[in-house]
């Protein structure tokens, strides 16, 4: 899914996607696959570990995944166009399949993101016909600035009652049945409330707008040859790294003082909160830029040999992402080992590192025998309605 027009895979894109998967896993583990929020840490050391992981990867690894999604969208559509095909209808079917996989995965783990990416991917199709990269970047910037929140800030300061209502996800809570119930109880809770809570959070936190904006940025990166012609963009990577690092440091220190400038009272409840959320989103985007430009600068530079190890898991991100929750949700939830009650933040991180190393080894071994990850092959074959697509590699006599 990251092939260049000429047919060779863009290993840098695969590696970045694998790195994003690592970041997601490193967040999910200390988050105890969402059960952390039932009993947040209070010990200073555990809080420091939690804050460090979430400052670097919380919301950022997800953002990198959305950006890679946009690059892959461009690659797929561009490859089809070079063959003289209009792939729009087939891509919609591809997203339907991804959404169905997300719905099934969401029965097991309510934090599934596949369904969200599938729905937001539908909004990319009209923008594929926009030829100007500047226009696309302008539209992306609009979405990344959280326009709905900006409108709510202005309306809230003007005294609009609707604009001073807290978002729905503020009232959501993790159901204790996750810790005491059976597997059937977990599935039932995920259907009855977990699914709605996920979408409420995605909307109320601005994640949906961010996904669309980052996917459009990914389209532009694909068009500009960011991964296909890396040798031509050395200066861009280092300039982008320095600019994003400066923005991240500035926002880290200034987002609190800046948001406090917005008036707040018993009736003006939301404007300051929405301003803080917008500034927090911009901080997350800045750190995402640091991770993007920093990783690619090192990958195409002095550390390519080592960072290239992320490419194999990046080629089977779908399979590994689902596999992570299939293995670790029972580790933490009540119907399994129930370690949510005893595992500290530090222990979770120390378990996550070797666990992902095992995933990397398995991915490298897997591609010695197969062309695609198992779910990737199912997705590809179902998209093309062709079960004859090669899965196992043939051994030469």
Approximately how much helix is present in the residues?
Answer: 55-70%
Task: Tell me the fraction of residues in β-strands, as a range.
Answer: under 5%
Unreliable segments (pLDDT under 50, ≥5 consecutive)? 3-8
List the helices and strands in order: HHHHHHHHHHHHHHHHH
**Shape, per Cα inertia axes:** globular
Largest sheet composition: none
Mean pLDDT: 93
Number of contiguous helices: 17
Distance between the termini: 29 Å
What does this protein look like?
Helix 1 (11-28) runs parallel beside helix 15 (317-332), helix 4 packs antiparallel against helix 17 and helix 6 packs antiparallel against helix 10 (207-224). The protein starts with 10 loop residues before the first helix and ends in a 13-residue tail after the last helix. It contains 17 helices and no strands. It has helices at 11-28, 44-56, 60-82, 88-108, 114-121, 133-144, 147-157, 177-180, 183-204, 207-224, 234-259, 270-299, 304-307, 311-315, 317-332, 345-366, 374-384. The chain is globular. The protein is mainly α and 397 residues long.
